[in-house]
Amino acid sequence: MMKKTSKPLLSRVMIAIGTALVACTFLVGYRTLNATERGGLQSEVPYGVTSPTVPERVEFAGQQIELLRNDLRERMDRELLSFTYMHSNTLLIIKRANRLFPLIEPILRENNLPDDLKYLAVIESNLQYSARSPAGAAGIWQFMPKTGRDYGLEVGENIDERYHTEKATRAACRYLREAYDKFGDWLCVAASYNGGQQRISSARQKQLVDKATDLWLAEETSRYLFRLLAAKTVMSHPSRYGFLLKSEQLYPPIPCTRVSVTTGIDNLAAFAKEHGIFYAQLKEANPWLRDTFLQNRSGRTYVLSIPTREGIYYHPSKIVPYNKEWVID
User: Which of 182, 187, 226, 258 could join 212 via S-S bond, C-beta 3.0 to 4.6 A?
Assistant: First the structure.
């Protein structure tokens, strides 16, 4: 009898232990509210989930956006809640930003564009270079194939530069500058990045308003504006919203050497091996290579990134936070 029941008993004990560990892990992510914060109220659970404070105003690309109006405040509240309590997603964004913002920010400066426009990439793709939408938008800037080609990217089955962080960022800069010349307002530019320039122009004309925050737009575009503002707000001070990261937990930039080629490469795995790395590492560093070979009938010059031996390995003590506000150490 004991032999028959011992296995189920052991299973129940293991499940109980596992449940306790999960509960402990969950509680570590939340702080316990003190008596003053509870207002004398007693909760049935030992932790408190609070709503982040909506600021009275936020600044974006040099423009002050007042959030005292009911509709604006509630739209901001929704997106702050989303960023604050989608824990794993927000943590990953901050970790990735440590690697990608050093690439994106200089390109924005070179093109005389506001630094805050980098948050468009945050809400477009969560800074995931391999991101692809159901509609076919790709890369950190989520270009559709035609739009990517219109702004100078090579988009095909063998090569897709929408996944090339630097080239896609430069293409995005061309779009953003063109949109600003048309609208003269950075939030309208942001809205057009989601909804299209023609749609935003038409809405402004029909609704007799100029500010993007005053427009009645499709829900996705309407939320898009406040996701942008919330992304900047949370990422400017992550610890204020409960995200407590150490420097060693951020993703460091990966140093690479550059190899220029003007001919095709029949076998990228063999090419990677010749340069002391694996095929997987070559693809990780060059996600714009979409096949096992590089086709180059036109003799174009392509520059491939080859991670250095030092860059391949993780060195926690050497990771430097790009923004000190992101970490607690």
Answer: 187
Give the model's confidence band at 114: pLDDT under 50 very low, under 70 low, under 90 confident, else very high.
very high
User: Are 194 and 221 within 8 A, CB to CB?
Assistant: yes
Distance, in Å, from the CA atom of 54 to the CA atom of 286, rounded to the nearest integer, reads 40
CATH topology of domain 57-248: Lysozyme (1.10.530)
pTM for the predicted model, two decimal places = 0.86
- Distances in Å between the Cα of 132 and the Cα atoms of 2, 129, 139, 225 are 54, 9, 7, 21
CB 84 within 8 A of CB 52: yes
Per-residue exposure over 209-236, b if at least 16 CB sit within 10 Å of its own CB, e if not? eeebbebebeeebbbbbbbbbbbbbbbe
Instruction: List 33's β-bridge partners, or say none.
Output: none
> Could you state, in order of their start, the residue ranges of all structural domains in the chain?
2-38, 57-248, 254-313
Task: Please state, in angstroms and rounded to a whole number, the distance separating the CA atoms of residues 226 and 221.
Answer: 9
The angle that helices 70-85 and 87-110 make with each other, rounded to 10 degrees, is 110
Per-residue pLDDT at 43: 72
Q: Which residues, at least 6 apart from 251, have a Cβ–Cβ distance to it below 8 Å?
A: 95, 96, 98, 99
- Tens of pLDDT along 58-112? 999 999 999 999 999 999 999 999 999 999 999 999 999 999 999 999 999 999 9
